[in-house]
Amino acid sequence: MVIQEAAEMYLETILRLKNRTGVVRAVDIAREMGYSKPTISEQMKKFRENGYVEVNNEGHITLTDKGMEIARSTLERHNVLGRILQKIGVSKDTAIEDACRIEHYISEETFRCFKKYFDEE
Is 14 in the same domain as 60? Predict the structure, then answer.
């Protein structure tokens, strides 16, 4: 499944917020990502149209199965890569920042090999 980096970031952010607070609204995503609420609202409209999220009458945003699959995969790559980078001596802050960039470009094959090599499975 191929999806753009920005979309992965949005979906990962929704999952992180859901895990942290239980309820996700456009304003929460805007605050977390540093974007305007209208920008988030426009993106959520596109995500609804493409089947990644649902928004109820109260404005609560939930990931569909399709959106959840992408969000979980992106979050896993982020977490595993962050731990691997720290194992090889990268500081925690830098590892987290670098993992956020790497997670969007690494192939599934390379990611699986990293996980296996660093006992992250």
Answer: yes
